[in-house]
Amino acid sequence: MAMAGKVIKCHAAVAWKPNAPLVIEEIEVTPPQKNELRIKVIATGVCHTDLYHLFEGKHKDGFPAVLGHEGAGIVESVGPGVTEFKPGDKVVPLFISQCGECRFCRCPKTNLCERSWSSERYASMSDAESHFTCRGQAILQFMGTSTFSEYTVMNQVAVAKIHEDARLDRVCLLGCGIPTGYGAAINTAQVTPGSVCAVFGLGAVGLAAVMGCKNAGASRIIAVDINEKKFEKAKVFGATEFVNPSAHSKPISQVLHELTNGGVDFSLECVGNVAVMRSALESCVKGWGVSVLVGWTDMEDFSARPIQLISGKTWKGSLFGGYKSKDFVPVLVHDYMSGKIKLDEFVTHSMTLEQVNDAIELMKTGGCIRTVLNISTE
């Protein structure tokens, strides 16, 4: 509380421009204003969406920024009007807010929220206003969060209070990747007991989707990836079979049709590649097959032959696994602590904030599932 109401100077990894290494800088973080809280970030995962912004999206209005959106920390101080949180609370910052009042929050069909940064600045992946400055320049908060910083400031509608005994260097993964894949299977696809599933892409999101299929009772879970080193890890989460598209001369959809007597009941695309999205749809059985788009991209159009849908298939999208964020992140923390879902098994590397560029390179080359950056001590 010593710095409550004052500007904090701390270290953060700043993305000054696209296609360039992040730079560890000293930044200034403003005190929380009305309905805001300042969070000491303890740990954060490095997610593919961070890389997408840096190397693929590269929107001119999205820099300079502090990346990171898969974090967990401790409330340092709160602004006027904050009643739900107090200093010392363990929390997960959320890239999807839940104000509880807008038409989206009131609708049980969606987890979107009109108070989110994405409502108006979807392409730049940040709000126009920021609580950060560096070298006299405003620094954007990526996806409203910016967990590659020792401190961040969030509105209370975008923070989840979690169990006081939660291990922050694990539950940070519940800020994005694991709910995204797990919920896509459980909530969006609504995988049924005894069904046959295919998961395309075995990064953290894809492995979480495999875990979701298993927990939903699927009888066969076919893991699809061109990196066969990931197949052993997929077994840990419940995959029963493995297919490398590169090992076949036929389209992967045809391979899966032959393996499953006409196609899978559910397919989940966890890559963010429009060609793979089409393959995932075409891999489904006609009549009732459901294919879910999970991988994040906004760079290209996607397409399919109309007969794919006319024949009875369903093509759906999923954001953050369909979870209303403030309501369900605490539930998922409990599920981890009770052993219902895995988190430890996703973490293949632990590093410091100063090693952030090494962590990014690991993800670019497929050398990790999840790297957790230890930002501060509790």
UniProtKB/TrEMBL annotation:
It comes from Denticeps clupeoides (denticle herring). Keywords: Metal-binding, NAD, Oxidoreductase, Zinc. The lineage of its organism: Eukaryota, Metazoa, Chordata, Craniata, Vertebrata. Residues 17-373 form the Enoyl reductase (ER) domain. InterPro entries: ADH-like_C, ADH-like_N, ADH_Zn_CS, ER, GroES-like_sf, NAD(P)-bd_dom_sf. GO terms for cellular component: cytosol. One of its GO terms (molecular function) is zinc ion binding. The keyword Nucleotide-binding does not apply. The keyword Metal-binding applies. This is Enoyl reductase (ER) domain-containing protein. One of its GO terms (biological process) is formaldehyde catabolic process. The gene is LOC114763530. Its cofactor is Zn(2+). Belongs to the zinc-containing alcohol dehydrogenase family.
